[in-house]
Structure formats: structure tokens, C-alpha cells
Design brief:
4-stranded parallel sheet, 29% strand, 421 residues, Dna Ligase, domain 1, globular, alpha+beta, 4-stranded antiparallel sheet, Rossmann fold
Length: 421
């Protein structure tokens, strides 16, 4: 059996999928966003695709599948989701409706689908990133602006007044004009969503859709307040500190939202906020949790001596195996996505060994490279690295993550000035 994995060339999860596939005897074909003129530069035999040129990319995938037939498709990250769905349809494999996936990667379309299904949504409207939007009569405060073509809280800013909104819009406009954003060519680079700010605690739900029914894997608590002005996610802990009734209600709301989009099969990662007005589903992505965060999830099933990572479960699901026997480990687990404190060049990292000795911490990975230009949100799109912990209770996990982070010191030098000629 062979599974097609679509990803950007920088996808953190590719090694995890490769290890899982080798362990359970599944072959992988990668399709990554790279120059087709380079002859296998990473020696992974990947299909060269361009996510902004879906037709040509689809032809390349179908042609490759004639030589090495594909039995399942998985998208890693938001950008490959639509192409992955088109590929699954072309190869006559299980797939979500294309309209459902298109809505999942467009914040405005998702809001429209949720509202049509009777789910609570904030007031919202789409607008170009021009300062005069701040004077629109539909704007109320506090509000949030979100670039439609970006993900991972990039460019998301809260404003509490018209002056703050004008400043935020200017910042988003400058971000959208950057070369690294323009080259994405998603078709959404010149639009943003303006919406009401939703108060409350934030959670994430990881799971998989099986014939239109949500099979939840975990509910993550985000214990750090996400009230703005920027919305950098740092800590995920599972299981979430929810009463059984609250958990049931949250999963039911995610199911309704997934049905509203039309999602039927494959991994999902959902985000929601909870307050006295109800459960607001912020988004549902038709792909697994991003980055290295999947390492938090370990699964077991009867007669198997070792724990299975999320990637193994998703590979089995992709080829049509029954995954009902898999259950997440009973211990609490969590990850800290190490935030970037300021813009600059990474010169060094101290304290890694001391941080690893923190009770309940089981792994630390620094993913930023030396001399890499670091940039925090809302302009940035990465983290310094990841800290993982496991403990009997969620509070102990959270404290371990914070304690380990406090032992790390990042030497970040001011970036070199650019001198015009």
C-alpha cells in the first residue's frame, strides 16, 4: 500500500510520517512545493508541485501514480489541502468534497457556512487592507483583523479603537506586500476579514472524520490567555480541564461545524472559544495538527506493545484500515511552541541540558537555525522550537513546560541594517 503525502518542503512532520510508514510497511510518495528543474535535490524522489498551479501539479501527480499507484492521500499543512483533495478525486480515492475543503481554508467562507448552519459566529465582513476600513459603520470594538490568505495567527491583530484599527490595518497591508507572502499566490493575498473579538477560553480538537462522523483523538487546553493584541499560541495541554458534559458539548459543536463545511473523511484540526454565549468554532482545518506538535499524541491498541504516533494512525486511516481500536494514552501531555521574543538573528541557545532535566520534560527540539532571522508575530511564521512534557495531571505538564522554558536563554542579535545604494 502507498500513501501520497503533500507538504511544503519545510514540513516538520515528514520525518514522522516516514518513520511510521517504514514501521508498519506502507510506502510513501511525497509531493512537495519545489522547483521541477532540480533533479531530486533532497533525494526523496518527491513529485515537484506548485500549490498555486494546481492543474499542472495534478497532472504530475496522476502521471506519477501510473507508475506507483496510490492508495491514500494526506495533506500536511494548510497550503496543500486543496491540491491533495483534487488528487484524491482524480485517483478515485476517498476524499472530501472540493467545496468543503475550499471553505475550510477560507476564513470568510467558513464563517458563512457556520452561520448558515445556525452556529454562533461573530459579526464579520471581508475588506481590502485599506485604512478607511476603520471608518466602516459595521465596525464595532473590540474587533480582530485576519488576512484571508495566511494561517497560524500570522497577521491576526486585535484593535480596541479606530486608531488601533488603522494602525493594525497598516501593519497587515505591509505584511501582505512582502515578497514571501506574494509568492504564495493563494489568490487571497489582498483581502482580510474584520470580525468581532470573541472572549473566552480557547481549545483545539484533534480528530479524524470517518464517513462524516467525528472520531476525536484529543481536546487540547490552551491555558495561556489569547486576548491580543496578537495571538501567538504557546502551550497545548491534553486532556483539557473540562467537565464531561462540557467535553461532550464541545465535540458535538465541532461535529456540527464539520458537517456545515461538508467534511467527510480524513484528519481535522479544529479551534474554538468558549464563553457564556456558547461554543464558537473559529476554524476547522482538513489536515492534522501542525509542526512537531503531533509528538504530544501517542496511541495504543490491544496486542501492540509499543505506543503509536499520530502519523501511524493517520496512515492506517488513509489506506482504509479500521482505527477504532486506537486510544490515546491516559497520561496528560503537552507541548510549548517556544515563542520568538523579538526580531533578530539567532546567535546561540544556552540551558538546553538544564531544561531537559526538568521533571516531566521528555524532549526539547530547537528548530530555529543559527544566524536565522527570527521574527515574532504578527509578521513571523515560525517558532524557536518545541518543549514536550508528560505527567499524571495537566497542571504538572503546564508547570514543567514553563519551568523548562525559563531555563533556556536565546542570544538574539539585532538584524543588520539594510543600506540603500
Amino acid at each position: 500500500m502507498r500513501v501520497l503525502i503533500l507538504s511544503t518542503t519545510t514540513g516538520y512532520q515528514l520525518h514522522s510520517f516516514g518513520d511510521s510508514a517504514e514501521r508498519i510497511g506502507i510506502a510513501l510518495t511525497f509531493a512537495t512545493d519545489r522547483c521541477h528543474k532540480l533533479e531530486n535535490p533532497w533525494r526523496d524522489e518527491a513529485i515537484a508541485v506548485r500549490f498555486h498551479d494546481e492543474d499542472a501539479s495534478l497532472r504530475a501527480i496522476v502521471q506519477a501514480a501510473q507508475v506507483k499507484p496510490i492508495d491514500g492521500v494526506i495533506a500536511v499543512g494548510d497550503r496543500p489541502v486543496v491540491l491533495a483533495t483534487r488528487a484524491a478525486h482524480a485517483l478515485r480515492l476517498r476524499a472530501n468534497p472540493l467545496a468543503a475543503v475550499a471553505a475550510s481554508v477560507n476564513k470568510k467562507l467558513a464563517h458563512v457556512r457556520f452561520a448558515e448552519a445556525g452556529l454562533p459566529v461573530p459579526w464579520f465582513f471581508e475588506a481590502p487592507p485599506y485604512p478607511d476600513v476603520a471608518d466602516d459603520h459595521r465596525v464595532r470594538f473590540p474587533c480582530v483583523i485576519k488576512p484571508l490568505g495566511l494561517s497560524g495567527s500570522r497577521g491576526v491583530i486585535r484593535a480596541n479603537s479606530r486608531d488601533e484599527l488603522r494602525a493594525a490595518i497598516g501593519r497587515v497591508k505591509a505584511l501582505l506586500l512582502r515578497r514571501d507572502v506574494r509568492v504564495l499566490r493563494s489568490g487571497l493575498e489582498d483581502a482580510m476579514l474584520v470580525e468581532g473579538f470573541i472572549e473566552g477560553r480557547e481549545f483545539a480538537v484533534e480528530g479524524v472524520m470517518i464517513d462524516g462522523v467525528l472520531r476525536p483523538f484529543a481536546i487540547f487546553d490552551k491555558p495561556e490567555p489569547l486576548d491580543g493584541p496578537f495571538f501567538e499560541e504557546t502551550i497545548y495541554v491534553t486532556p483539557a480541564a473540562l467537565a464531561p458534559k462540557q467535553e461532550t458539548e464541545m465535540l458535538a459543536q465541532i461535529q456540527r461545524a464539520a458537517s456545515a463545511l461538508g467534511l467527510m473523511t480524513g484528519p481535522i484540526h479544529a479551534e474554538c472559544r468558549v464563553n457564556t454565549a456558547g461554543i464558537f468554532v473559529l476554524e476547522i482545518a482538513a489536515r492534522p495538527i501542525g509542526g512537531l506538535c503531533s509528538k504530544v499524541l501517542r496511541f495504543s491498541r490491544p496486542a501492540e506493545p509499543s505506543a503509536a504516533p499520530l502519523e501511524e494512525v493517520l496512515l492506517r486511516h488513509a489506506i482504509g484500515e479500521n482505527i477504532d481500536g486506537y486510544t490515546r494514552e491516559s497520561t496528560a501531555a503537552g507541548v510549548m511552541m517556544i515563542p520568538i521574543p523579538r526580531r533578530g538573528l539567532l546567535r546561540g541557545v544556552d540551558g538546553i541540558d538544564r531544561a531537559r532535566e526538568t521533571p516531566h520534560v521528555d524532549e526539547i527540539q530547537i528548530t530555529a537555525k543559527l544566524d536565522q532571522l527570527l521574527e515574532p508575530l504578527p509578521e513571523g511564521a515560525s517558532y524557536l522550537g518545541f518543549i514536550f512534557a508528560r505527567a499524571p495531571e495537566g497542571d504538572a505538564v503546564m508547570q514543567a513546560l514553563k519551568a523548562a522554558h525559563a531555563k533556556l536563554h536565546f542570544d538574539i542579535a539585532a538584524p543588520l541594517p539594510v543600506v540603500g545604494v
